[in-house]
Amino acid sequence: MAGPAAAEQATPPPRRGSRWRLRLRRWLPWLAAAAILGGLAARLPRAELLHALATGPSVPVAVCSVAVVAAALLADTWATLTAFAATGVRCSWRGLLPARGATYLLGLLNFAAGQGGMGLYLHRAGVEPLRALGTLLFLLATQIAALAVVAAAGAAANVAGAAGAAGGAVAGALPLLAGLGAAFALYLVLVARRPAWLVRFRVLAPAFTAGVRGFLRATAVRVPHVLAMIVGLWLGLRLWGVTLPLTRGLVVLSGAVLITVLPLVPGGLGTLELAVVALASSYAPGPTVAAQRAGVLAFTLVYHLCSIAAQALAGVLCLGWLIRRARMAPPALPAG
Length: 336
Fold this sequence. Notes:
By secondary structure, this protein is mainly α. The protein has one domain. Helix content is 79%, strand content 0%. The chain has 13 helices and no strands. Helix 11 runs antiparallel to helix 12.
């Protein structure tokens, strides 16, 4: 009879090509971010970019970036607490804040990894896997809905202020906003009507538990978190001298933030820079289009890298908080 040793010998070692594919898969997001940033920098005058980095108001922008991360963490925790309560998951602010902050470390990899960290929190809270997945999907839906609400408000204010005329970027966003509005209207109709063929799916149970009122409340409470990110980015641009109007910024910067949600590159590095350069450069100072783009790229590099550093610091502090709390917790008594 073949024993464990024989079974181990029968197991073929991983092929060399498989190991290379695994390494490539791990490094691919970082390579993609480097390619995007390298492509942006290569198309701009190097002297203009270095001059913008050397002479720009980096310190005020860095302070703004760090403050935005702190405000976003508090608003994010409040919104997540509300969304969890709507789906039937009860937790405390004191318990959720360090857990949410610790997931910011995973969020540096990509948005999906950060959401996965909240899945671990739900698992430790006793939520079964399918319901935890449904709760995270509900959380994601409220985040996208809040982004759409902010962008729609900005588009409406921009059109009203321009006597019915929308700018190119705002006009281009209107079909997307209309599509999102239709999708969420359909979602609310389905949640209200509770069709039997949908209710039977356990992964959708959190959405039906929240209902229409729970979804609207969770979305409304998510709006301050979204505003903190968008208005913070807009304020940083203003500090850098980019005169992007606030109403238009609510639209175009909502798109920039939404792009960073895509799990393509670590921490949105590269995609945020690409989006902001494309959407805000026309409002930047500079004698040429290339100089304007170089100035905005310099800003996004300073702002984004400081944000990443602040997120990492917040994540480490919150993780230490969790570890300290676990060590101080009384040991479980044996049964019997």
